[in-house]
Amino acid sequence: MSAATGELKRAAGTSPGFACDRQGTRSDDERVAQAMRGFVEDFGRKAALYLESCIHCGMCAESCHFYEVTGDPKYTPVWKLEPLKQAYKREYGPFAPIFRLLNLKRAVSADQLAEWQHLLYDSCTMCGRCSLMCPMGIDIAGLISDARHGMARAGLVPAELREAADRGAAPADFKDRIGRLAAEHRIDIPLDKAKADVLCTISATEIEKYPASIVATAKIMQRLGADWTFRSDGYQANNFGLLAGDAQKQKEASMKLIDAAVACGAKSLILPECGHAYGALRWMGANIYGKPLPFQVLHISEFLAENVRSGKLRLKRLDKSATFHDPCQSSRRGGVIEAPREVLAALGVELKEMFPTRGTNWCCGGGGGVVDIRRADALRHKVFHLKMNQIDDTGAELPVTSCSDCRKTFDDGQTHYRWDKSMNSLLELVADNLAEA
Questions:
Q1: Does residue 171 carry a pLDDT above 80?
Q2: pTM of the full predicted structure?
Q3: Please, what are the domains in the chain?
């Protein structure tokens, strides 16, 4: 834990059974003031349009997996924005003086922020299904991310996300892991090449739980004859700053990847099987960099599909049935929907789609950092029933996904419910079924 973070406290919140983590020793008044500054900094024409457009139709509730499994109105996505909306109405909106004078929207309180930590972090994966279903086109998931900025400014972030954002990457550990994997699997895994056309990245989840994905990447790159490398100065693609709501940590994590790609002159930066990593760099990277990125950013499934399409990557046929779980951040929020299905087609599987699927799929329940928040486990396990039922209903032999955090959520759900299905990595399936050139 960094000294800047200060003491982490998990204390009872205002709602029974909820807890609120606090960083530092600021007073309640200071926390509220910092949260308000964070909220107001994100207000602009776009946020104002969104916050003024809500018609309270309730469609976002029916789109939310947390509301779907509990029926509890507090999980209505737009209600999770209430502190942000209060700040907007009182401080920024066109009638802010009247709202303050008549107290038409009460001031945000410290107790309210403590209670909303559960709603903004534990019970929201920022999956974007509510944004997609909103008839007014309000990006509720984007506003949740903005609200997290204020919470981070106030030192009110779940301990696990705060610690992960502060911890960042550990290059020495990474070098050691790469060396051991290369020796164990007798494969070359280039590290820190001065020049390379392709920079590959990985997620912390893959390093900790799924190192086979690192080997799979090396096998595929070797088969393609690619000029590629990992870089110890920029390899960890997942961005806990984004999940925590810490804009500075988010920028630092993104800039490590950008600087590493620029340093080796990469033409392509390949993101791993990590949904939020794709959104953080593909759609936010240029804004953080301040100009267009001098390289293309591809999700690994896009890279695989591109090489399948060109005939450079030939695969053996599996002749099994499969269903694909679309990761919310790369699929619904990122647009990477058809690429993994192209790869599955090249593997010769019979694809049995879930219902709903593609951009309207149900979230696994672990995104947005929820899978890492221990106190959220009970609620997350309830949500996971949606995915179990979806997959079981297809009758498919192989559940497949292209996000390691989704996979982690599935593995945890499988253990919790003693489910007879195991989630498979698309990347690893490809590496295990490479056809001879």
A1: no
A2: 0.93
A3: 3-157 (1.10.1060), 171-306 (3.40.50), 312-432 (3.40.50)
